[in-house]
Amino acid sequence: MELRTIENLLEKYFDAATSTAEENILKEYFSSSDVAPHLEQYKPMFGYFVKEATQEFEKAVPLKPRRQNVKWLSIAASLVVMFSLYALFSNQSGHERELGTYEDPEIAFQETQKALNMLSNQVNVGVSGVEYLGEYEKSKNKIFKDSKK
To answer: Between the CA of residue 94 and those of 62, 84, 86, 91, 97, what are the distances in Å?
Structure first.
């Protein structure tokens, strides 16, 4: 084979631009005994590729089926259900929890004002975020209208 062709193929190979057929030509050339002296350094690399391509995996692969721990899963689920039922009935037994009821109307009014004030602040934060979206929409419309003209 012409030396210049091999050098061109090597250049293409190192640029990752060779086809499989061209790589086979290189492997065949470097497995032969008449390799040019300045290309001898590539002979072990292509020899390795040829040797490894013929190697087969010979060890036995143990195929143990994966056991699912259904027993442990069912025990865990039943414990969760029992704990949930205990928590539910322990809160309702004997006494009711106080759910924000007030005897004094002034204190009830003040607490309601606090809760509504907190809610108002959170709504205002959301509204300010929506204002940014409105500005974004206006800017986007200006840009796309100007670019269509």
So the answer is: 60, 18, 14, 8, 10
pLDDT digits (tens, 9 = 90+) for 41-71: 888 888 777 777 777 878 887 777 777 677 8
What does the alpha-carbon distance between residue 36 and residue 32 come to, in Å, rounded to a whole number?
A: 11
Burial 75-95 (b: 16+ CB within 10 A, else e): eeeeeeeeeeeeeeeeeeeee
Read off the pTM: 0.37
Pair 29, 45: CB distance under 8 Å: no
Asked if 11 and 24 count as a contact pair (C-beta separation under 8 A), the reply is no
**Ramachandran angles phi, psi of 120, nearest 5°:** -65, -40
Per-residue burial over 32-49, b = 16 or more CB atoms within 10 Å of its CB, e = otherwise: eeebeeeeeebeeebeee
| Listed residue (38, 8, 48, 44) closest to 25, CA to CA | 8
